[in-house]
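User: Hi! I have a protein structure encoded as tokens and I'd like to know what sequence might fold into it. I'm fairly new to this, so please keep things simple.
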């Protein structure tokens, strides 16, 4: 009989001051953990647990002291508590739908020391089963929980085999022509401020966040249809020349 495991590590270590008692109780049942100074390093030798059991009296006490804004995890627990019978002493929580990412996201949203958490898992098997190996990575930020896997990497590589490097751009057959690079914009802003020495523009500090905001604000306002038609026409002529050369 084969056993499937998914050893998992969470990076970076999570500051203990940012974790509420309820979150700590959940994470310590989902993961193994080690002290890392004023933080806790979470990991799972065989894989995170989706199911945890907590004493109902402890849960109610932790919820009463919960200082963090209510989130999906807290709301789920409150709903579960509303359905338990008076004689039950322990609550079983299935976190498979929410996942550990939802807990870490709540922590990130109120912790100035964290802007993201990375959850990396390896998929292993005690026998060399063809479906028993691979891995995944999940990136959690204040606004997003995004995941990718070795299966998706495999699909992209197969796309390259089927379509070649010229045909495996995102969306198959779509090719980026212009890209705003934040590093270049940062350099340009510095040059402009230097040229505007003595003015209000030169006296302000432009942050990385403001550069990114400017990119998002500008792109929807651009109308490059005429330039795009010229590029399409030039590209079509290049394709015709390639076809003529191939048939010669």
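Assistant: Happy to help. Inverse folding works backwards from shape to sequence: for each of the 248 positions I chose a residue that suits the local structure. Here it is:
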């Amino acid at each position: 009989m084969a056993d499937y495991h998914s050893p998992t590590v969470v990076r970076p270590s999570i500051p203990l001051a940012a974790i509420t008692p309820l979150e700590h109780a959940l994470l310590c049942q989902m993961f193994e953990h080690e002290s890392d100074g004023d933080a806790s390093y979470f990991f799972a030798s065989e894989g995170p647990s989706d199911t945890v059991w907590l004493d109902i009296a402890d849960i109610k006490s932790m919820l009463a002291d919960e200082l963090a804004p209510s989130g999906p995890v807290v709301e789920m627990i409150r709903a579960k508590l509303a359905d338990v019978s008076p004689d039950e002493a322990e609550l079983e929580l299935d976190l498979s739908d929410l996942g550990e990412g939802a807990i870490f996201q709540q922590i990130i949203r109120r912790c100035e020391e964290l802007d993201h958490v990375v959850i990396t898992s390896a998929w292993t098997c005690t026998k060399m089963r063809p479906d028993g190996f691979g891995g995944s990575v999940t990136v959690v930020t204040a606004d997003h929980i995004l995941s990718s896997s070795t299966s998706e990497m495999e699909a992209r590589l197969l796309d390259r085999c089927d379509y070649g490097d010229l045909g495996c751009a995102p969306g198959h057959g779509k090719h980026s022509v212009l890209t705003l690079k934040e590093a270049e914009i940062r350099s340009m802003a510095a040059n402009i401020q230097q040229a505007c020495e003595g003015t209000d523009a030169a006296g302000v500090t432009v942050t990385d966040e403001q550069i990114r905001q400017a990119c998002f604000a500008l792109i929807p306002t651009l109308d490059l249809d005429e330039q795009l038609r010229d590029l399409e026409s030039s590209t079509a002529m290049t394709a015709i020349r390639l076809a003529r050369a191939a048939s010669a």
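A useful reference point when you look it over: The chain has eight helices and ten strands. Feel free to ask if any position seems puzzling.
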